[in-house]
Design goal:
The chain has about 180 residues and is α+β, with helices and mostly antiparallel strands. The chain has helices spanning about 1-15, 115-120, 150-160; strands at about 30-35, 40, 45-50, 65-70, 75-80, 95-100, 125-130, 140-145, 170-175. The radius of gyration is 18 Å and the shape is globular.
Length: about 180
């Protein structure tokens, strides 16, 4: 137990130093600004966020996701999202995008707290994010993709050919 606590303390100390070029860090919430939100469908938006000034890269590994949080009345609401852009390093340009379906309230349900909050945030407003999950390596991967699993799967498929020496074998079962 003591060894686990010491290892965790070393990991936290390493991440608390951060990386000057990376926008998002583990163990540290970072504010980013909403740039735009074009409508893709009646209930779906593509939100673009600008990275903090001087930060060049989002800082996510393959299939890692970010956690987004809002303070809503007397509680905090947080949800994980996988950015749809950048997928590969060549797309890094000081912004990132999330595609989010908004669950609007209707007679059958009250609507999604996070997606409705997301939809109401004005341009240039700051929102807090943090990196979640850890990067792992595998030689063979089987993906069963559907709904929210599509974006991380796409990230993995796009990054493998971009990574020199990566010979990961992939089997994909598309469930949409």
């Amino acid at each position: 137990m003591k060894k686990n606590a010491e290892a965790k303390a070393i990991e936290l100390a390493q991440y608390s130093k951060g990386d000057d070029e990376l926008a998002l860090q583990k163990h540290r919430w970072v504010s980013v600004r909403r740039k735009n939100k074009p409508e893709l469908r009646k209930d779906t938006r593509c939100y673009t966020f600008s990275l903090p000034q001087g930060k060049l890269s989002l800082g996510l590994g393959t299939c890692q996701h970010i956690q987004l949080r809002f303070h809503s009345e007397d509680r905090m609401v947080a949800r994980p999202y996988t950015p749809t852009r950048p997928v590969v390093e060549s797309e890094e340009d000081e912004v990132f995008q999330l595609v989010v379906k908004t669950y609007f309230p209707n007679d059958d349900q009250p609507g999604g707290v996070m997606s409705n909050s997301h939809d109401c945030i004005p341009l240039n407003e700051e929102i807090e994010f943090i990196i979640e999950g850890k990067e792992m390596r595998f030689n063979r991967v089987t993906l069963i993709q559907g709904k929210s699993g599509t974006t991380p799967g796409y990230q993995m498929i796009a990054r493998i050919p971009e990574t020199e020496g990566d010979n990961t074998e992939i089997i994909i079962i598309e469930a949409n």
